[in-house]
Each structure stands twice: as C-alpha cells, then as structure tokens.
Amino acid sequence: MKRRITVEEAQQKQNGAQAAQWVDVRSESEFAAGHIPGAANIPLNELEARLGDISSDKPVLLICQSGKRAEMAAELLEKCRAEIVLLEGGTKAWSAAGLPLVQSVRTRWSLERQVRLIAGLLVVIGVALAVSVHPLFMGLAAFVGVGLTFAGATDICAMGILLAKMPWNKSVSCVVVKRDEQGATS
Predict the structure, then answer these.
(1) Residue 157 catalytic?
(2) pLDDT per residue as tens digits for the range 94-136
(3) Per the residue annotation, which of 64, 80, 157, 174 is the catalytic one?
(4) What burial letters (b/e) apply to 71-93, b meaning 16+ CB within 10 Å?
C-alpha cells in the first residue's frame, strides 16, 4: 500500500514509535550534496539489487529531489513491501520548510561520471586532431569506443580502475580515538 505524507507529518513521525526507514533514491552525488538527516541512500538504479537493505517489518519512506523517482521506486517496491510512504515534494520541500539537510562539504564525482567525462574529452580531442592535424588521430576516438564497448560488455573498466587510484578518489581517513571508562584517551 502506497500513501503520501507532507514534510510536516514526516518530521513529526521521524523519531516516533512507528518510525519508518527513510530511503533516499537519488544518486550518491545528489545525496552528498544535501539529504535529510537519518536517510539511507539507495539509488533508484540499485534498488532491486538492494532489497535486503530495506526493512520488511516497518514502513519505508521514499525520498528523492521532488517526488518523481520516489514514485518510480514505490512502483518497484509495492510487490515486496507492505507499507510504502512517499514524501511529498522530496528534499526540495524539506529544505523549503527550513528543515536541516546534511551536506558534504567535499562532494566527489562518481567514478562513472569521471569515466564519461574523460572518455568524452578523449573522443573530442581525437576527432579535433584528426580534422586539424592528421587523420590517424581518429584512432584515439576509436580506441576509446572499443574500451567503452569492452567495459559495457564485461563490466571491467580499465579507465575506472585507473581513476579509482587517483588521489582525489582516495577515502578521507580519520583517527579513531579510544577512551577508557574515566574518559581518558589512549
């Protein structure tokens, strides 16, 4: 069963006894740019593969930017979850109501987006050089096309593997401070 609730209703029920599991179905980068506190990120394209991450014993509140993707997610989940709730207006309405959003100061581009950017640039450069310098530069565009075709067919992307090793894609590390019963750090 699918129903809709307003931002005000959602805020009141967020920490109540019948709290729902809040699932934001936007992409990872959209989620990092600003999401409702306590919401879990399960992008729409991963939803069917991650059904085990979605509660089967409590309502599921679906969230997206404005409501369209949440509606699509609800259609996918209706067959396997009893109670589905849609947040009317999504994070736009939440933010417009002056409610807090969790935002990442440093949002990193997804590897897929980085691959698309680099591949596109290589194709444009290859064609431009083929037109202006020598026709053999068209081989660069062809090489990128073959690489993308291979990546699509095998799910192995050499460019993605290389980009994952770049410094801007490294995880931010943090130091875990352990405290004893008296509060002293070790």
Answers:
(1) no
(2) 999 999 998 876 656 778 889 999 999 999 999 999 999 999 9
(3) 64
(4) eebbebbeeebebbbbbebbbeb
